[in-house]
Design goal:
This protein is α+β, with helices and mostly antiparallel strands. It is built from 9 helices and 8 strands. The strands form 2 sheets. A 5-stranded antiparallel beta sheet has the order 3-2-1-5-4. A 3-stranded antiparallel beta sheet has the order 6-7-8. Strand 6 and strand 7 form a beta hairpin. Helix 6 crosses helix 7. The chain starts with 12 loop residues before the first helix and ends with a helix.
Length: 272
């Protein structure tokens, strides 16, 4: 699986998910504050119950992105599947915590263990998955957060170094200086956008639709719902059954969906 750096863009995914987890834990700890349990202990319990599943769901999504079939699914369905998988893996840990705290009786025998796990899953998974979908909803709907300061200056500097159209320059201005180069391809990464250039790759808070509009001055196309590719970066097109693969100059392999094979073939046949 490709490894991506998360210290790029205006808000890192790590900080975003961690902040939401801590905020939810604090909120639930205040709501369920009881005289029987010290607030500090209650907060620690909720931190475990918020950070744990959040981490597992993020990992599930990232692992899923390494599979072609997963990438071909509807973005909301991908999100839902990752949420269910992450929440399901958290169920045994949640049950263990309840047993250690004495909230549930210790199950006797394998049958009771499975019943306890099923009961825990029915109580844990629905709210966890719904929360996961709600947390990601703004980005899935196309909202984004970018820093405005110094962006104009960056764009002016880039304009002097490249003949790209202004919208594409504004897109590059969101990248760290060390990653700015000719755009090779774009990839949708949950509510983030992976921008791959001749100088490297970076994650920014944006959506693929807006980025494609910014690259309108470049000869490119969308071979897959999650990708946009610069035609100048294509080195080879390989057929794989009823689908295909675009091999780029940086040796990256971009999937071509079944419905896009003919369009990609015609597009590549035209001169730039």
């Amino acid at each position: 699986m490709s490894q991506y750096s998360f210290d790029l863009g205006d808000v890192s995914p790590t900080k975003y998910f961690a902040s939401i987890s801590i905020l939810l834990a604090l909120l639930f700890a205040l709501i369920e504050n009881s005289n029987d349990v010290a607030f500090g202990i209650n907060l620690l319990l909720w931190l475990f119950q918020s950070i744990g599943p959040m981490l597992l769901m993020v990992v599930s999504y990232k692992l899923g992105m390494s599979f072609r079939r997963f990438n071909q699914l509807n973005p909301w369905f991908r999100l839902f599947i990752a949420g269910c998988v992450g929440a399901l893996f958290f169920v045994p840990f949640a049950l263990l915590a309840d047993l250690m705290l004495g909230n549930d009786p210790l199950p006797q025998g394998h049958l009771e263990v499975w019943r306890a796990l099923a009961d825990e899953a029915s109580g844990v998974m629905p709210p966890v998955v719904l929360c996961w979908l709600a947390i990601n909803a703004p980005w899935m709907l196309g909202f984004k957060v970018v820093k405005i300061q110094d962006q104009t200056t960056s764009a002016e500097v880039l304009a002097e170094k490249t003949d790209m159209a202004e919208p594409a320059i504004q897109l590059l201005a969101l990248l760290p200086e060390s990653k700015r180069g000719q755009i090779l391809y774009l990839k949708s990464e949950l509510h983030y956008l992976m921008v791959v250039t001749t100088a490297g790759q970076a994650l920014i808070l944006s959506n693929l639709k807006d980025a494609i509009m910014a690259c309108d001055g470049l000869a490119g196309m969308q071979p897959h719902r999650s990708y946009w590719v610069n035609k100048a970066a294509v080195q080879e097109f390989r057929r794989q059954g009823r689908e295909g693969i675009l091999v780029l100059v940086n040796q990256a392999e971009i999937p071509v969906s079944r419905s896009k094979v003919s369009e990609v073939t015609d597009f590549l046949a035209k001169p730039i």
